[in-house]
Design a protein that fits this description.
275 residues, alpha/beta, TIM Barrel, 2 domains, eight-stranded parallel barrel, 12 helices, 8 strands, binds 3-methyl-2-oxobutanoic acid, binds sodium ion, pantothenate biosynthesis, cytoplasm, Pyrv_kinase-like_dom_sf, 3-methyl-2-oxobutanoate hydroxymethyltransferase
């Protein structure tokens, strides 16, 4: 899809929304060629690409830098960009300026923010400004430190009711879609049925209107911990490791570069060289 206005259409037509993260030009090219409906430039960037152990250190400039590369790699795909930790929690005015700046510099189509509470006002304001906003509830990694880590959310009735109420508030505030992360599948199904906007699940079972996974998780690329809810559709890391190891061996043994990788002087120029 080209823009977030198509999200609702997918839900109405009962077509699953395929979302995947990407962080650079080749990743975005592969995602677009695979027919992903939408690409998320997630702040999971911090963990899978930048090597931090949480999303907390990721900055606005980090996000914009990577989103620009993704935009160049996927010019025809709707791109959602995460607002990073702390960038939407000061005043609404500061948040609005930051959001406009992120959108203008990156070329992304929409922004994503985590949580409810005061974030509902953020969703409403940015939507009023004309920025499509994707909400994100359940396990919200930016607040993992206060949620008790990367654990399933909404497991008892009260917590589940709260997530449902938050989801409804996100929709009422104008969110164009809702990411539901790491919640019981029955809760995700119930919320999906209650909302007019599509839900995009990750660790939320099969009933959501779409699915999202982290590029590196689903492709088996990198050494980070892979959550239980991920299916690995390839083992790219093994290919990468094997290729690099073979390269190192070939250089050390003199097998690389070979004749086909080398350029030649003509015989006459060779003669002059050795004069
Ligand atoms: O940053 C990210 O990759 C995300 C998805 C896991 C939803 O927010
Ligand atoms: Na994120």
């Amino acid at each position: 899809m080209k823009s977030t206005t198509e999200f609702q259409k997918f839900k109405r037509d009962k077509r699953k929304i395929v979302m995947v993260t990407a962080y650079d030009y080749p990743g975005a090219r592969y995602a677009e060629a695979a027919g992903a409906d939408t690409i998320l430039v997630g702040d999971s960037l911090g963990m899978v690409v930048l090597g931090y152990d949480s999303t907390v250190p990721v900055t606005v400039d980090d996000m914009v830098h990577h989103a620009k590369a993704v935009r160049r790699g996927a010019p025809g795909t709707c791109i959602v960009l995460d607002m990073p930790f702390g960038s939407y929690h000061a005043s609404l005015e500061v948040t609005t300026r930051c959001a406009v700046d992120m959108l203008q510099r990156s070329g992304a189509d929409a922004l994503k923010v985590e949580g409810a509470g005061e974030v509902i006002d953020v969703i409403r304001r940015l939507t009023q400004v004309g920025i499509p906003v994707v909400a994100h509830l359940g396990l919200t990694p930016q607040s993992a430190a206060v949620l008790g880590g990367y654990v399933v959310q909404g497991k008892d009735f009260e917590a589940a009711q709260q997530i449902l109420r938050d989801a409804q508030a996100c929709e009422a505030a104008g969110a164009c879609a809702l990411v539901l992360e790491c919640v019981p599948q029955q809760l995700a199904a119930h919320i999906t049925a209650q909302l007019g906007i599509p839900t995009i699940g990750i660790g939320a079972g099969p009933a959501t209107d779409g699915q999202v996974l982290v590029f590196h998780d689903l492709l088996g690329y990198g050494n980070h911990r892979v959550p239980k809810f991920v299916q690995q559709f390839a083992q790219v890391g093994e290919q990468v490791q094997g290729g690099l190891t073979a390269y190192a061996q070939a250089v050390r043994s003199g097998k690389f570069p070979g004749a086909v990788h080398s350029f030649n002087l003509s015989d006459s120029e060779l003669g002059r060289l050795y004069g």
